[in-house]
Every structure is written in C-alpha cells, then in structure tokens.
Automatic annotation (TrEMBL):
Name of the encoding gene: RNASEH2B
InterPro entries: RNase_H2_suB, RNase_H2_suB_wHTH, Rnh202_N
Protein name according to UniProt: Ribonuclease H2 subunit B
Broad class of where this protein is predominantly found: nucleus
Originating organism: Vicugna pacos (Alpaca)
Record keyword Nucleus present: yes
Localization (cell): Nucleus
Family membership: Belongs to the RNase H2 subunit B family.
Protein keywords: Nucleus
Subunit composition and interactions: The RNase H2 complex is a heterotrimer composed of the catalytic subunit RNASEH2A and the non-catalytic subunits RNASEH2B and RNASEH2C.
Residue ranges annotated for the Rnh202 triple barrel domain, each copy included: 33-92
Length: 284
C-alpha cells in the first residue's frame, strides 16, 4: 500500500491506494518511460476520463474506483480517510480508436490514421498510435486502402457490429465460467416487477453482456448492437422507476481525480499479489 508522506508544511499528504497487475512493477520503476496517467476521451460519454498507460509495452489500462462508506486505509503509521480503492485493468484500445473513427466517418472518406486520431482536448490520444499490432486491430472495424505505400482507413459499421458481437459472446462465456448470476441484475436494471423474475437464461446473459460492452461505445452504436443481437425489447417496467440506475457501493465507478499530476513523482511498490502505487508527493 502507499506509504505516508509529510508535506513541507508538516501536513499529511493525501495518498491513494491503487491495485495494478504485478507484472507492471518494472514499468513503474521507470517512471518517465514506464507508467503514465493520461486523460483521454471516454468512448461512451465523449467526456474526459483518466487512464493508465504503460509506455514499455505499450498497453492501456482503465482506472476504476471502489468507494465504500465508513472505510479508511491504514498506511504505515497513518490513517487515510475516504477508503477509496483504485484499480487498473487492461482495456482494449480499439474502443477508443473506434470513437475517433466514427467521428471521422462523418466526412465519408478514407483518411490516414494520424489524421483521424486527433483531439485538441485530449492530445495524449496520439499515444494510441504507438500501440503494437495497430493495423491488425483496425481490421476489425475499418475498411482499408493503400496508396503509395501509405494506408488509409474508413469506419465500417458492418465489421464493427461483427466485432462487438464477438466481444459480447466472449463476455457471456466469462460470466458463465465464473458462475455469475445475471438475471437479478438484468431485471433490477430494467426495474422488472417481482413476478417477472426468473432464473438465468441465455437472453439475460446476452443482455447483461451487451450492457457491459455499451459502457465503452456511443449510445447510437449500442442501440445498433442491440438490434444486431436481436435482443427483444424488455418487458414493461414497474411504475415510477428511478430516473437512472443507482450504483451500489461495491460497484466500480470511473476515477474522477486528475492523477496526471503524479506522472513526475516516484512510484514505490510493495511486493504483494498485487502491488500499489505511492502517489504521495515527496517530502520537501
């Protein structure tokens, strides 16, 4: 866990506890060329979100937060209130690339990738162009042309829906393998009445997996995917449902704080099954 660090004025620095895969330990020790927090677009909302980028591989990780009430961390000789637990998990970068490809498709023409993945609000999107096997990834969602040994790309909705269907099927398989009950969650999300509750069935798995994938794609594409999967409209909801789904305390939410300010600081590690990042500033 992160160690306690005093600021120059004697005040206890705020610290954060992160869980990341252990294999990133070597990357963290090479801060400037290793792990870096970056602010990139959220491909679902179009707003900014914090990601962790491994410059060594390179590899992209999304950052999520678990928040529980009345929870604190004991860090060395100090107590860190708030009890937030941050964790980074590998993310398919194609979801972010897809966001820019869909946006560029409004021009209706083939374009070089470096002219597609451009964003004045999130200039670090250029890091996506350094990812390995980039051309192989793009084949899942684009049409491709080569002119004078330079490649040009155009978004393909047909290819994208086939690729997303595979993602849904992979998610369904993972849910079943891990014996995760989805019926109650699907029915709770849709606010079904009590007599509509049933045991897990294939449609529930597909609908739940579709919901998970929809967190990474624009709503218009999510709706198109639902039709592509031939998901029936959910039964009528119970009267007066809440205006939006309420996230439970044990569900991960998107990290809001801007951790890019820690990119110039040391990342210290503790040897565990997972290891954590010390984000406290150095003592003056």
């Amino acid at each position: 866990m992160a160690g306690g660090v005093d600021g120059g004025d004697g005040a206890r620095a705020r610290q954060h506890v992160f869980l990341v895969p252990e294999y990133l330990k070597d990357a963290a020790e090479k801060m400037k060329t290793g792990l870096m927090f970056v602010k990139l677009v959220n491909p679902c909302s179009g707003e900014g979100a914090i990601y962790l980028f491994n410059m060594c591989l390179p590899q992209l990780f999304e950052v999520k937060v678990f928040k529980e009430k009345n929870h604190s961390w004991f860090i060395n000789e100090s107590v860190q209130s708030g009890g937030l637990l941050h964790f980074a998990t590998p993310m398919d970068p194609l979801f972010l690339l897809l966001y820019y490809l869909i946006k560029a498709d409004k021009e209706g023409k083939f374009q070089p990738l470096d002219q597609v993945v451009m964003d004045d609000m999130f200039p670090n999107c250029a890091l996506l162009l350094k990812l390995p096997e980039l051309e192989k990834l793009l084949r899942h969602v684009t049409e491709e042309k080569e002119i004078d040994k330079k490649k040009y790309y155009k978004y393909s909705k047909e290819k994208t829906l086939k690729w997303l269907e595979k993602k849904v099927n992979q998610t369904v398989a993972a849910l079943k393998t891990n014996n995760i009950n989805v019926s109650a969650r699907v029915q709770s999300t849709a606010f079904f009445s009590g007599d509509q509750v049933s045991s897990d069935k294939e449609e529930d798995y597909i609908r739940y997996a579709h919901g998970l994938i929809s967190d990474y794609i624009p709503k218009e594409l999510s709706d198109a995917l639902s039709k592509y999967l031939k998901l029936p409209e959910p039964p009528a909801a119970v009267p007066n449902p809440p205006s939006k789904k309420v996230k439970l305390s044990d569900e991960p939410v998107e990290a809001k704080e801007d951790y890019t300010k820690f990119n110039t600081k040391d990342l210290k590690t503790v040897k565990r099954r997972y290891w954590s990042l010390n984000l406290g500033p150095r003592a003056c």
